[in-house]
Request: fold
Amino acid sequence: GSPMSARDFELELPHIRLAAREWGDPHGEPVLAIHGWLDNAATFDTLAPLLPDLHLVAIDLPGHGRSQHRPPGSVHHFVDWVPEVAAAADALGWDAFSLLGHSMGAGISSLVPAVFPERVRRVVLLEGAGPLAADAGKAAEQLISALADEEKARAAEPRIFPDLESAISARMRDTDLDAEAARRLVERGTESVDG
Reply:
């Protein structure tokens, strides 16, 4: 289940509903936590309780965890996450806040203060420095590759696992996640279906 003192709730953004999990002191320093690729707010389940003085809110990015998905045909450009992070802060009523980003979330968190410098107090990046960049001469090649990836993603069927344990094993493959961390992510990022 949820770690001690965590509370799950939802944020209504103007265009999408996000799931969120919060910890700590509601009057503490507001910190918005942004998870990495294939992950969700449960990424912060073991770290957050160690930071009781903060008001830490981890969101599930659209299409992750328990958040609403974007409409079919939508793409996820890195820069598109930036206004969603600001909209999440707006929904929380936070004018100024700090960011705690992991991996892809660190890349997103590194862009937010460039766009909203007056709102971001501090940025903490875990296992990430910023979005990947490439030589401008490779732009066409990169776009072709991205479009091919999107086409492949549209054609993909959702993965169905026979049970939770199989999904946890799959999530641990090619990562250094331990079983407990993988379980937290998988429990928040899957739903039961027939079969």
